[in-house]
Amino acid sequence: MRPADQINFINKNRLAWSADVLMRFYLPIIGRDAVALYQYLTTSDSVRVSDVLNHLNIGIIDFNDCLDKLTAMNLLDVYTDRKSYQLELKSPKNPNDFLADEFYSRLLLSRVGEQAFEKIAEYVQPFETKLSKKFSDVFKINFSGTVESIAENKTDKNGFDLTSFQNIMRQRHLGFANKEVDVLRIYELADKYNFDWYDLFKIAEKTANANSTINIDAIILEITKPDEEKPDLSTFSPDERQLIMIAKEVEPEVFLNSLKSQEGGFVTKQEREILLRLTRLAVEPEVQNILIHYSLIQTAQSSLNEKFVDRVANDWKRNNVSSAELALKRIESFKENQTSNNSKTNNNYKQNNSFDSTKSSAKVPEWHNETTKNMTTDQDLLALEKLRQEALKDIQGVGD
C-alpha cells in the first residue's frame, strides 16, 4: 500500500478479541508494531494509510511489513479493487486453541523459550478439562448413508499432516537435526510450495543427511532447482553407462567401501565425515559417487582427499552439476578446456581428467561387473517384491 491509499473494513462488527491474548501469544511472534496496528485498525471505520502512519509513528515499509505479519498469522485478510483496499479483521485464537495448534505453539516456543512457554501454558490451563467430542470428531457419514466411527487425525490449518509425516519418518529411521527449528521450516515449505505430507517426505527422504537426519536446506535446493536436460546416454561409452547406472543405485559410503576393499583398504572416519559434509551441502548421492570414482580411480588417490574433494564439489555446485551424467560431462570438459598454460592449481584439479574406460571397468564394485540379467536371482526378486509390498502397507497405514 501507499500513504495516499484508502482503507475500508469488512464484517468488522463480528470481531472479538482480547488485548491479553494479543500480548501473551501473538506479540512475541509478530512484534509490537504489528500488534499496535491491529489494535488501531479495530477502532477505525475508514482511514487513509497516511493517518495510520502518523498515529503509530511508523513508515510505509514497516506498515506493509506489519500487514504481512498479520495476514500470515490469520489476523487479517487484504482485498483490493485497485481503487481502494478492503481489510477483513479476524479474531485471534483463544488461548486453548492457540496452544492446541501445533504450528502456532511451536512458533511461540521458538520465540519465547521453553521456560516462558511453560508459564504461558500454565496460565491458560483450565481447572477442569472438557473431554467431550463433537459428533463430527467421532463419526463420518459416507454416501451410502452409513455412519462410521473414525479416529481423530488432526491437520493444521493448511492441511499439512505433521503426525503422518513424523510416523513415516520413524518407520524409515529418520530424525530431525533440530526438531524445534526443523518442524517450523517443514510447515513453511508445505505452505509455500503446497505439498502434502507424503510428497514432502519423499523429498526429505531423498535429501536426508548421511546420519539419517532431515536436511532442510537440501530439501529447499531440491524443490527449487531448475529442471536440467540430462545428456543422452547414447553419448556415453558402455563403461560410462555402467558407471552411471551404479552411481544411481548405490549409496556413496557403500560405493566407496566397495572400491577401497578391492585394494585391501577400508573407509576411514575422515572419509565418512567428507561424505556427510557433501550430503549437508546437498550434493546428490549419484554425483558423490562420480566424485568418489574420479578421486580414487581417475586421479589414482588411495583415499579421499578433503581439499581435493571440496575443490571439485565446489566447482560442480557452481556449474549446477546435479546428476551422474552431468558430472561425467563436467570431467570431460576438463580435458577439452585444458591448455599448456593452465595455472598450477588448475593443473592439479584437471590432472588425469580423461575418462579411462579400462580403469572404469576394472574399478567398479566387483559385485556389479556381472551382466545386468545375472545381477538379481529369482529369490532376490521375490524378496524385493515382499519389501515393496510391506512399504506400501506402511505408507497406507500412515495415511489412514
UniProtKB/TrEMBL annotation:
Compositional bias per record (Low complexity), positions renumbered to this chain: 337-353
Any single Pfam family the record assigns to this protein: DnaB_2
Domain DnaB/C C-terminal: 259-329
Region (Disordered) location: 337-365
Replicative helicase loading/DNA remodeling protein DnaB N-terminal winged helix domain ranges (all copies): 1-221
Designated name of the protein: DnaD domain-containing protein
Family: Belongs to the DnaB/DnaD family.
Source organism of this protein record: Floricoccus penangensis
